[in-house]
Design brief:
CATH topology: Amidase signature (AS) enzymes
Largest sheet: 11 strands, mixed
CATH class: Alpha Beta
Structural class: alpha+beta
CATH architecture: Alpha-Beta Complex
Strand content: 5-15%
Strand order of the largest sheet: 1-4-2-7-9-8-14-17-13-10-11
Number of strands: 17
Number of domains: 1
Radius of gyration: 24 Å
Number of helices: 19
Length: about 550
């Protein structure tokens, strides 16, 4: 009895400390922002090692079901430990110091991870350096915790390959209803971001590959102007359309990530078109009043020109129309039903796709494969890749139609045929397209559904910012994907977004518009995923304290 009394007296101060100094409330990772994480890190409530452990646990809990992440960086925890030490020594590098991110599997890294485009053909291949965007992330103090799944070769192998499917990763699925089609090709980056498997992720877009997945996965994404972010050592499709961009849960977080990866790079000559001597601070654009005085065009007719492109239109159009009142009440001027008569003509013209195939075939050896320092399969061309796919069972059952067309039909990159096709498409979409419409109407942005936004912006290389707009009713019937694959294109609580397209290099203005719209609507937080991880930051911190 005396021993028990002594023990209770010894523990009393600890109990009183717990009462008067309760454990700090830690941010839930499903919706935590950069500000939330940095405040907790700076206050010592948790560490970057805690964050890495929490995110890895979350990935492991849901990845068998969602297939969003291809691999975990085995060096992530060691990197986090070094960054924690820097923070304790007062050497905080900036806003992203010690923050875990994911990158798409076509973005090159010089580390223990693979970069494969979703194919076994490049498994074990290595680079002598990081891609430029990854190098910038590392210098900023971010922790790359893994690679995300993606549509095989960014959707270029064949239309018969399901969106979000790769040979290495299997079928990515969205988290909002059973079997949700995540769209592609940055499928894993979008799904992982949507349920907090990392703070944010990088995706890539040629046409709709960032914008589309953001649209249906309830997140924010920025598809930058072509040339604002370097594509050096990113597996290429089209140097005229490819762009690397941030995918996050809030506009401000996406803006922070863009600020880190944007900027000129001598290894990508498209970045020489950046018109600023000093890049804007994109996160500083996220302030009240961002819609005040802005002129925004409202594009109509997309439901007539290609209504089947977006299965959410039936549900999203009422929200689209309601959002016009949000814009005007926040101080924007609308130019409704802007005239863009040549969109239908472009949709009838398939030859820009042939230009992309030419680009992908000719640039792959020059811009990526020749930089490999180790290449176990010996892939040196698109022809080698096609042969590997056709002869290797694990590469899946879908055909190689687009590879075949690139090798047998697409004109040489510098031929008259190539430039004739490209010039015609560029004229429709730029000189007779959205850029001219915005200039003639003095518009800061054009607002339209995301899949149409990416379509009209892609050839011109224009920036697109996508934010959540709403979701389908909870009793919406599940609709199977008619294109095949093990996914559903419609279901209950299916998110949908809205996009703002602006002139080239107008990201600062677009971010201001998108941030103001996000703050007025706050839709993301009203839509809950059906699949979510169990582990949270508090669990990891609690376990560490009791060890």
């Amino acid at each position: 009895m005396r021993l028990l009394l002594q023990l209770l007296l010894a523990l009393a101060p600890l109990a009183l400390t717990a009462v008067f100094n309760p454990a700090p409330k830690l941010p839930p990772l499903l919706d935590s922002t950069l500000d939330d994480l940095q405040k907790g890190l700076d206050a010592g409530h948790f560490t970057s090692v805690d964050l890495v452990r929490a995110y890895v646990a979350r990935i492991e809990e849901v990845n068998d079901q969602l297939r969003a992440v291809l691999e975990i960086n085995p060096e992530a925890e060691a990197i986090a430990r070094e960054l924690d030490l820097e923070r304790r020594n007062g050497q905080r590098r900036g806003p992203l110091h010690g923050i875990p991110v994911l990158v798409k599997d076509n973005i090159g890294t010089h580390d223990a991870m693979n970069t494969t485009g979703g194919s076994f053909a490049l498994l074990g291949a290595t680079l002598g350096e990081d891609s430029t965007v990854v190098s910038k992330l590392r210098r900023a103090g971010t922790i790359i915790i893994g690679k995300t799944n993606m549509s095989y070769w960014a959707g270029m192998r064949s239309p018969t390959c399901p969106e979000g499917w790769s040979a290495r990763g299997g079928q990515t699925k969205g988290a909002y209803f059973a079997g949700q089609n995540p769209l592609g090709s940055s499928s894993g980056s979008a799904v992982a971001t949507s349920i907090g498997l990392a703070w944010a992720a990088l995706g890539t877009e040629t046409t709709s590959s960032i914008t589309g997945p953001a649209h249906v996965n309830n997140i924010v994404a920025i598809k930058p102007t072509v040339g604002l972010t370097s594509r050096h050592l990113v597996i290429p499709l089209s140097r005229r359309q490819d762009s690397v961009g941030p995918m996050a849960r809030t506009v401000k977080d996406a803006a922070h990530l863009l600020s880190v990866i944007a900027g000129p790079d001598a290894k990508d000559n498209y970045t020489s078109a950046i018109p600023f001597e000093q890049l804007p601070s994109y996160a500083d654009a996220c302030r009240p009043g961002g819609l005040q005085g802005k002129r925004i065009g409202v594009m109509r007719g997309f439901d007539r020109s290609k209504p089947y492109l977006d299965q959410t239109l039936l549900f999203s159009l009422p929200s689209f129309n309601s959002s016009l009142d949000v814009l005007t009440k926040a101080g924007a001027s609308l130019v409704d039903d802007i005239n863009y008569t040549d969109l239908a003509e472009y949709l009838k013209f398939p030859m820009n796709g042939m230009c992309i195939l030419s680009d992908a075939r000719d640039r792959l050896p020059k811009d990526y494969l020749r930089h490999l320092t180790k290449n176990p399969i010996g892939i040196s061309s698109l022809r080698d890749l096609r042969l590997f796919v056709q002869e290797t069972k694990p590469e899946g059952e879908c055909d190689t139609l687009l590879f075949d067309m690139a090798l047998s039909m697409a004109p040489p990159e510098n031929s008259a045929s190539f430039w004739g096709n490209y010039t015609f498409a560029h004229d429709i979409m730029t000189e007779r397209g959205l850029s001219t419409v915005m200039r003639k109407n003095s518009l800061d942005a054009v607002m339209l559904p995301p899949l149409y936004a990416s379509l009209v912006a892609s050839v011109s290389g224009l920036p697109v910012v996508t934010v959540p707009l709403g979701a389908t009713p909870s009793d919406t019937a599940i609709v199977k994907n008619p294109d095949g694959g093990d996914t559903n294109i419609m279901g209950p609580s299916h998110p949908f977004g809205i996009s703002f397209v602006g002139p080239a290099f107008s990201e600062e203005s677009l971010i201001a518009i998108a941030y103001a719209f996000e703050q007025e609507t706050r839709v993301r937080w009203a839509v809950s995923p059906a699949v979510r991880p169990r582990t949270d930051l508090r669990d990891v911190v609690r376990n560490r304290r009791f060890q």
